[in-house]
Structures are given as C-alpha cells and as structure tokens.
Amino acid sequence: MAGDLLRTGASPEVRASHADRDRIADVLRVAAGDGRLTLAELDERLEAALSARTVGELAVLTADLPEGVGETPVEAQEVVRIEQEGSSTRRGERWVVPRRLEVRSAWGEVTLDFTDAVITRDTLHIDLDMRAGALKLPTRPGIVVDAGALVTNYSQIKARGAPADAPVLLRVRITGEIDYGQVVVRPGRRGFGRRRPPA
User: Fold this and answer.
1) Domain map of the chain by residue range?
2) How far, rounded to the nearest angstrom, does the alpha carbon of residue 175 sit from its chain's CA centroid?
C-alpha cells in the first residue's frame, strides 16, 4: 500500500508512479469488495488515486484501512481454463478473478459467483464455447456484464444486473458461442459485500 512507500523512507512529496497509482486502485477495489468502502467512497477514492501526484496523496486514501487489505494470498492468474462434459463447475467463495477465462462445456452448468469474488483487475474476458448448458453469473453492484459479442444459436441471455449508475468494479465481456443453452446474469442473493462469519 502507499503506507509501505512511506515506511521505506520515501518522502510524502516524492512523485507517484503509474504502478503506485494502480496498486492503490487495486487495494481500494478489494476494500470495497470486503464492504469496508461504500460504492460512493470507492468512486471518490479511485478518482483521487488516479489523479494523485505524490505518494503522500496516495497514502491518505488507504490510511483508514487495516494493514494487509488488498493483499491477495494467491496471485491472480492471467488465463484459467474450465473444461467439462456432463457435469457442473462452480467458482464461489473468495475465488480470485483472472484476466481471462476459457470455458469449454457440454451438457453442464458453469457458475461464476461474483458476490464474494476477489477482484484484483478491472476487466475479465470470458471466451465461451458451450453446448446444451448454462453459464450463470450471480453479481453484486459494480459488476457490469457485456454479452453483446456472444453468438447465440437457439439460446437465450437473461440479464438482471445492478443499477447502471453504480461505480464499476469489474467489466465482464463474454465472447464466443453458445448452442441450445442460456446465460443468466442476476444479482447475488447476499448482495454487496462479504458474508460475515457468526460471532
């Protein structure tokens, strides 16, 4: 985080790099996913992070967040491949969203649940090749799904997303082809934020 830059002896007046700004933006997105920031706060802080000139300005944006927020124990992969036939696959609690997902499925269901997902990037490209099955995407506010480039043969797309005015956490772009199936986009049952463990 920006605080790490200051602890290493860098002056608050040192100019911030693009990498510094991107790192803080990632921390803020994860903090919003954890429920530590509202969508309005996230939008405001992201704008400030991207226009920050110094590491001191960046440090202020994460000063009220606990140490370790935004540090993902598992590095997000560039490409993840899901292959199945006659079965179901689910990515759920705390799964780390990669940059690209290649889905090859026949006679089965693939569920990508974004309600508790760890989002470290702002875009996800899903390359879909599905026959006689369903791709289900439970979402939360800030997740925007675009299936406009997906080729549908005797298939349907059912989309019920978050309000369009919510700040964007993740853009999901679906391309490829689906035959005799459906893509279902709906708000997750738990809504925004993580499920809290019982006291």
Assistant:
1) 2-62, 79-187
2) 18
The 10 Å Cβ neighbour count of residue 45 is: 21
**Cα 57 off chain centre by:** 25
At residue 154, φ and ψ (nearest 5 deg) are 50, 40
Q: What is the pTM of this model?
A: 0.64
Task: Yes or no: say if 149 and 175 are a contact pair by the CB < 8 Å rule.
Answer: yes
Residues in the chain: 199
Longest CA pairwise span in the chain (Å): 61
Model pLDDT for residues 14-59, shown as the tens digit of each residue: 888 888 888 888 888 888 878 888 888 988 999 999 898 988 888 8
Helix H or strand E encompassing 82: strand 79-85
Query: What are the residues facing 150 on neighbouring strands?
Result: 176
Q: What is the 3-state secondary structure (H, E, C) of 132-191?
A: CCEEEEEECCCEEEEEEEEEEECCEEEECCCCCCCCCCEEEEEEEEEECCEEEEEECCCC
The structure tokens listed for 65 are 């967040």
SS3 186: strand
Tell me how far apart the alpha carbons of residues 103 and 135 are, in angstroms, rounded to a whole number. Answer: 9
- Higher-confidence residue of 43 and 105: namely 105
Segment (H or E) for 88: strand 88-91
The helix/strand/coil state of 111 is: strand
Q: Are 58 and 49 in contact (CB under 8 A)?
A: yes
Query: What's the pLDDT tens digit per position in 161-175?
Result: 655 666 888 999 999
